[in-house]
Amino acid sequence: MVYEGHFDNPKSRHSIRLIPLGPLALSILTAKRAKVPFDPAALVCPNGKGTVLDRRTLLSRQLKPAAKRLGLGNVNWHLLRHSNATLHDSIGTPLGTVQALLGHSSSEITRQVYLHSLSADRRVAVERLEALIIGPESDPNFGFEQLALPEFADAAGDIGRGDRI
From the CB of residue 98, how many other CB atoms can be counted at a distance below 10 Å? Predict the structure, then answer.
């Protein structure tokens, strides 16, 4: 493991893990590897001098300017870690898998600290619940007023007031 420009031991046994790569990342790394003679001891992504990249320099010179051009705001490494976990949760990746990918010893750390709710997921959840309750074959012209009890049908302005409900 590399930390602060030095090779060191990971902080826990859970930090030692294989990280799978998707097809796009694999093709990028394969193309990069094809351009240079193979050296199993060489770094995959060295700096211009062939040594370890500095995470702060990479953040300030590459990541932050790219994020700013994309309108993403103040991006940092930890935000990307949280975003990765949250997006995995959003697509239904099992909690144990997210835990393993992040190298956490406990799924509770992953769940409590790294998983955040996405507004699009909340909207989909509400729409699914509504479809479950009302039914998938309901008439799109069917209005909420038809669901209201007759004694409250004229009380639209009072909805939510405890003295009328």
Answer: 21
